[in-house]
Design brief:
8 helices, six-stranded mixed sheet, Coagulation Factor XIII, Chain A, domain 1, elongated, single chain, alpha/beta, 23% helix, 20 strands
Length: 423
């Protein structure tokens, strides 16, 4: 059964001073409406791109958004700042109305869009629990029954009878989230407010939202810039860009698309004759098994990471360094060629180094590579290039792969084929 459905929803705002518009615009709208004609201002307006200067006083914060969300789904909403994520949540929470389109909801909605939404600063935490619960649709009996559980979850028991104006922003959001999460609603909507809380509370909130979605079968919509949290909590996600819905798919696919949209793949970088500490890095690049320069690899292919450099120091012990990070900015591996023998590099010689990442090792996704040359005696870097190469690992669709018949998503950053021995 559907929990939420959006049909061609759009939201238009007028730029400039606070207000809905000008008297002349309002009269023009009324005159068109009285004659049964379309609002003339729906035909104008710029795309929601905050980084460019527009030609119109109107902007479409969201444009022609369509999606369906099933009951019990946990859905992440990701995108850059200004993409329209918070506007979408406000429409779904009925804080504001869409300019065009319709939204269908099935059940009660609890939303946490801003820190301390519905809190009165002069009232105590205890009073605000009852006030905020009533705003969200809870009865006094329901709030009383859950009060101790709400306070215990929030972790602000000592300050529950203190006016919330004396709370820190973290305490504010703790109490506000606790109230919203314990409302027996069918749909829970949470904006980026969890970023205010500390690491322990964020983990606690994610656990609670996971319980709400998986254990209680309620629907969760979650906006965050923390891709790890999105991946952990949400089975499906939506990617918004400049007010448009780019894609709605399983979360790993959406995260990959979001990352690759923001940062283009890079299979080769040339530096010319850039010299540092008597060492020149000419270029770095990626190769497949056939020696072809590429940034796209299948999971059953080997990845070769290559460096071309010249040494101008006599008889130096040189170590090659490599690190690879995934889409969550987590270091998947860091490797140095720390073999027992000393590797002497002669003066005025050119060297090409290749490092092989074995097949069936990295999971599907986008990875960033950093490369460097390190003094083998002092362990100080001669040259180091951070996030210099970017490549993608994907699975063969319909071909032979390590998946067998499995078509789901593997968790984690690596998925090596290991030897299993059964006796």
């Amino acid at each position: 059964m559907l929990a939420l459905k959006a049909e061609n929803i759009s939201k238009q705002y007028r730029l400039g001073q606070v207000g809905t518009g000008t008297l002349s615009h309002d009269l023009n709208r009324f005159w068109h409406k009285a004659r049964g004609k379309e609002d003339p201002y729906l035909k104008i307006g710029d795309t929601n791109d905050r980084s460019t200067k527009g030609d119109s006083d109107y902007v479409w914060s969201l444009r022609d958004i369509n999606f369906e969300i099933e009951e019990g789904d946990a859905v992440g909403i990701i995108g850059r700042n200004g993409a329209g994520k918070s506007t979408l949540l406000k429409l779904l929470s009925k804080v504001t109305k869409p300019t065009t389109g319709k939204i269908y909801t099935n059940g009660r909605i609890a939303s946490l869009l801003e820190v301390g939404t519905g809190f009165h600063p002069e009232m105590t935490g205890r009073e605000n629990v009852f006030l905020n619960g009533a705003i969200l649709g809870m009865t006094r009996k329901e709030i009383t029954r859950k009060f101790d559980e709400i306070v215990d979850f929030s972790g602000v028991e000592r300050y529950i009878d203190t006016p919330v104006k004396r709370y820190s922003s973290g305490m504010y959001v703790r109490l506000a989230f606790a109230v919203a999460a314990h409302l027996e609603s069918e749909i829970l909507i949470v904006d980026e407010v969890l970023a205010v809380g500390d690491a322990e509370f964020q983990k606690k909130c994610l656990g609670k939202m996971g319980d709400v979605s998986k254990g209680e079968g309620r629907t969760v919509l979650f906006v965050s810039h923390n891709m790890t949290a999105i991946e952990r909590l949400c089975t499906h996600s939506m990617f918004l860009k400049n007010g448009n819905l780019i894609d709605h798919d399983i979360t790993p696919n959406i995260i990959s698309k979001y990352i690759s949209e923001d940062q283009k793949l890079s299979s080769m970088v040339e530096f010319g004759n850039e010299t540092t500490k008597n060492m020149t890095m000419h270029k770095v690049w990626l190769e497949n098994i056939n020696g072809e320069n590429t940034s796209d690899f299948f999971s059953d292919e080997e990845v070769f990471i290559c460096m071309d450099f010249t040494n101008y120091t006599d008889n130096i012990n040189l170590i090659h360094a490599l690190s690879i990070t995934n889409e969550m900015d987590v270091i998947v591996l860091a490797s140095h060629d720390l073999n027992p023998e000393i590797k002497i590099r002669n003066k005025n010689k050119n060297y090409i180094t290749k490092c092989k990442i074995p097949s069936h090792f990295l999971n599907e996704g986008t990875f960033t590579c950093s490369l460097g040359l390190i003094d083998g005696l002092s362990y100080q870097p001669f040259l180091f290039k951070n996030d210099i190469l970017k490549f993608r690992i994907k699975d063969r669709i319909g071909g032979i792969s390590a998946r067998g018949l499995y078509t789901g998503v593997f968790p984690g950053a690596v998925r090596p084929i290991l030897n299993w021995e059964t006796t």
